[in-house]
Amino acid sequence: MMKIYLIGFMGSGKSSVGKNLATSLGISFFDTDSYIEEYTEKAIPAIFADEGEEGFRHYESNALEQLSGIEAVVATGGGIIEKTRNKDIMDEDGIIVYLHTNFETISQRLQEDKNRPLWNQDLNKRKALYERRLPMYKQFSHYIVETDDKEVEDIIYEIEDVMKFS
Predict the structure, then answer these.
(1) Which positions does UniProt annotate for Mg(2+) binding (predicted)?
(2) Pairing with 66, which of 55, 91, 144, 149 sits 20 to 30 Å away (CA)?
(3) Residue 28 belongs to a domain
């Protein structure tokens, strides 16, 4: 069974890479944010507004548990690393690939995005969040793939190469 978890900061390309990687490998694709929205019948900003970040993080852990044992590529939310329990779930179930993207690239990608509660803060808070999470992503991951200035296809080939030796 093959399970690949994609982790990284919001806007790092987890969903785009994940969909295409799953298609290339002929396995299912799940996005934990979409999975949570379907399960709760609420948009992510509404969950944050009603239940706070802690409530949302609880749903993330539940989503990982529900998806365990399924052959798939899973694009996780940027804050999946906020709970060590999530690392344990992913470690037991698959390979964790960190899509590393520079803050400047992420800023360009998310410039017009209004659906990310933790991005819709002032620049200093966004930058602090990015810098706080950076070592956590590295600690969680089995592999790191640099994504700046790369096409989705190139990132997929790199991940597939890593999978050959796993």
Answers:
(1) 15
(2) 144
(3) yes
Strand partners, 145: 99
Q: Is 78 annotated as a binding residue?
A: yes
Instruction: Please indicate if the annotation marks 85 as binding a ligand.
Output: no
Assign 31 a pLDDT band (cuts: 50, 70, 90). Answer: very high
Residue 126's pLDDT band (cuts 50, 70, 90) = confident
Residue 164, burial from CB neighbour count under 10 angstroms (0-12, 13-18, 19+): exposed
Total domain count, the chain: 1
Q: Are 43 and 117 in contact (CB under 8 A)?
A: no
In a domain, 12, yes or no: yes
* The predicted structure's pLDDT at residue 45: 86
According to DSSP, the residues that pair with 29 across neighbouring strands are 73
DSSP at 76: P
**Is 164 flagged in the annotation as binding?**
no
| CATH, residue 59 | 3.40.50.300
Residues 95-124 pLDDT 10s: 999 999 999 888 777 666 555 555 556 678
